[in-house]
Amino acid sequence: MGLFQRISDSQLLPYTREIVTLHDGGELALDCLEPTDPRTTAENDDRLIIFLLPGLTSCSQTSYVKSLVLAVTKVGATAYVLNNRGLGGVALKTPRTYCATKYEDVMEVIAHLKQKHPKEKMIAIGTSLGGMVLSQYLIGHPVEAKENFFAAMMISICWDPLAGTRSLETPFVNKYIVNYTLTSNLTELAVKHRDVLQRRDCWDFDKVLSSKTLREFDTNFTAPQFGYADVLDYYKDGMVAKRVHHFSIPVFALNAVDDPLIPGDYLPMKEAELEGSNLALIVTERGGHLGFLEGVLPVKKPFHYMERVVMDILVAVQSHGDDLKI
């Protein structure tokens, strides 16, 4: 519901697009939107640069991504949105897509952004799958992450893929609406890029396209593509809840207890409470997955609770950033 109560599909944001060529010849789009109100725009050295990593099959023109971008620019920051390979209208150049655990593409884009903005403070925001990838990067490269980013934010991240997929297989809404929709989006993407993807022989493409659940799709497509023994091996590698102590920068996370992709019992609340933890976890009773709509009968508007949290944190960083230094 949150996807339909924000910005309509027909309202496109006027991004400036840059095509980034990756080391293996792949390409992805990096879309940028600058703040339009000169009263909120800081001098170059003081300007915040926000690097936004969208969810599973989302791109820069997905409704909730657009609302987050507008929230970012409203407080005077510059937004850069990563469009994963094969998304955002960019053709897939090589038979490689993306997953929750591999962040090589993200590292290349981060290096590119640091070249463009060597002095400005950078904050990364990862939503859903984008947050999982961002977490893997922060955990795998804590020293580099601290050099590149002032802080990070995670929204509706699945901290435990095993628990998440079990939840998605629970009738009725989770299994027959959420799981079905996510899987359909992925199989449609595979169909769209089939000619390029079939250059590899690591999968049976008929099985890929017959996948009915996210677990089946990851079994038939994601796990073999990225060299995992099986889907369980992939999901175990994607588990970050017990590794948040490796975060070397302040990380603000927003999750809802009723999120179908990660039930409240599996949120890393105990880990966030440990002494020395760099994770600040905001948990709401309601909000679903990337929803966080306001009101008993939510009206259509660009900013709901999720966007207001993002704006509040960015304003706080701009005003009291020195207090966050670790």
Structure description:
The chain is of the alpha/beta class and 326 residues long. It contains twelve helices and eight strands. β1 and β2 form a beta hairpin. α1 runs parallel beside α12 and α3 (129-140) packs across α4 (142-148). The model has no long low-confidence stretch (mean pLDDT 94).
Helix and strand element order:
EEEHEHEHHEHHHHHHEHEH
The number of strands is: 8
Measured distance between first and last alpha carbons: 38 Å
| Helical fraction | 25-40%
DSSP summary: helix tally: 12
Radius of gyration over all CA atoms, rounded: 19 Å
Alpha-beta classification: alpha/beta
Looking across the biggest beta sheet, what order are the strands in?
Answer: 1-2-4-3-5-6-7-8
Describe this protein with a few key phrases:
alpha/beta; eight-stranded mixed beta sheet; 326 residues
